[in-house]
Amino acid sequence: MARPRKFDEHDVVLAARRQFTETGYHGTSVEDLSRSTGLSKGSLYGAFGDKETLFRRIFEEYCAASDQSAAARIEGPEDQALDRLRDWLHSPEGSSDDSRLGCLLAKGTAELAWTDEVIAARSLATFEMLFDSCRQLIEQAQRAGLVDPAADAAVLGRLIVATHRGLEALTEAGVDAKTLNRMADAAIDNITSTAIRG
Q1: pTM for the complete prediction?
Q2: Conformation bin of residue 166: beta by default, left when phi > 0, alpha when psi is -120 to 50
Q3: How far apart are CA 24 and CA 101, in angstroms?
Q4: Count of CB atoms within 10 A of residue 110's CB?
Q5: Burial class (CB in 10 A: 0-12, 13-18, 19+), 172
Q6: Cα gap 64→192, rounded to integer Å
Q7: Which member of 25, 40, 147, 188 lies 3.0 to 4.6 Å from 141 by CB, making a disulfide possible if both were Cys?
Q8: Contact 122, 63 (CB under 8 A)
Q9: Quick one: 78 exposed, middle or buried, by C-beta within 10 A (0-12, 13-18, 19+)?
């Protein structure tokens, strides 16, 4: 009869995710995972499979959480749609080690999508979800009279996602939150003013 597990699976997965985010897939060894999670290599393999299987699980859960957040942003008053986009782009005031770690979606895509079909397909699906949610928010803003209804909502939505990716990269580089948030505000304000001018 198998012995009961003596660890919190959620805590172990979080620790492994932080390790992968910090050092990347290829830069993370099983020894690193063992040290960061507090589990022996045998326990890791027994509970989660090999490193690839564990990473794919973590990547899937991360992308699913991103999908849920994107869907939640669509909900709310249409005249506040741009505020929800602005909030998504904004960085929290004050720096932290966690904010400097960056995004596992971006890192996993950059490192693995060109060689791993599973990661490539999942990352593309998540980016498509982000594109679509931002498009819907732009359309809400258009209906609320905040953005020119003739503007291409899909293009503007993709521009917002690209801006978010860029701001995340700058966060990792250590750019302060005040500067990043001024850039985020300029992006939203420019979409509004440019779209209205046509």
Answers
A1: 0.86
A2: alpha
A3: 10
A4: 11
A5: middle
A6: 30
A7: 147
A8: yes
A9: middle
Burial class (CB in 10 A: 0-12, 13-18, 19+), 163: buried
Q: Looking at the chain, how many residues does it have?
A: 198
Task: State the residue for tokens 């929800």.
Answer: 84
Interatomic CA distance for residues 73 and 84, integer angstroms: 6
Digit-coded pLDDT (tens) for 86-112: 999 998 765 455 555 678 999 999 999
Phi, psi of 174 (to 5 degrees): 100, 10
Contact 28, 63 (CB under 8 A): no
Contact indicator for 31, 42 with CB cutoff of 8 Å: no
Residue % of the chain over a pLDDT of 90: 75
